[in-house]
Design brief:
The protein is of the alpha/beta class. It has 2 domains: 158 residues, NAD(P)-binding Rossmann-like Domain (Rossmann fold, 3-Layer(aba) Sandwich), CATH 3.40.50.720; 72 residues, ProC C-terminal domain-like fold (Orthogonal Bundle). It is built from 12 helices and 8 strands. The radius of gyration is 21 Å and the shape is elongated.
Amino acid sequence: MLGRISFIGGGVMGEAIVQGLLAKKLLKAENITVSEPRRQRREELRKKHRIKVTADNREAAQTCEILVFAVKPQDLGKVLADLKGSIRPQQLVLSIVAGARLGAISKGLTHNAIVRVMPNTPAQIGEGISVWTTTRSVKESQKEQTRLILRALGKEVYVDEEKFVDMATAVSGTGPTYVFLVMEAMIDAAVHLGFPRHIAYELVTETMRGSIMFAMKSGKHPAELRNMVTSPGGTSAEALYQLEKGTLRTVLSKAIWAAYERTRSLGEGHDVSEGNER
């Protein structure tokens, strides 16, 4: 079902998609092209995955049915300028650029079939979750192609309104950052107690993994699960008191809201057409 795919940008997330496509055998390496300005990175991708590479964005765009934008937000303007007017009507453009709105991409390319996706870091091991939406011009067959691509990275959630992609950027897209910070803090605390760091790391990572799996399999609300392990006057109760005293919930809420506002500001940094083709 997938035709040839080209990537504009050969960074971490772009490579994660390439790896997923190859691992799931959705495409052969010869049908994947990556446009990347850094010569050393191009060679690294070519040798590692045996895909085609180029430094020419237009060349990459001409050889594919699906074009993936995997560049940093600050580089998107140049990419749009490079490719404006060169995208064929039947091509699908899939963007994973944080904050970049459908209207901005559509206007910048003078092209209507656009998919906007927010993946996250666990996509690199096939355990990610991607939230996505499209313009009205995207055909059902192209939506199915998008699902195939995103399922190679983990799970996918389609949303009808673009605002939910901005929200997902703050929750699931940035979410691994919050988890890693909590992991780091717990490991450091365990080392402070006296554990060797390698044991502290194993205790924390296995506890987090097991807790998440338990939560998913139980289907219970997190508050109910927390109450199950919190005995009156016990260690959990004392620890929770300190966490609540330190306003952990409020800080996390503020962090997610700040990430959401930053996502919105990144989108406002591009020329967005109010006539967004939705």
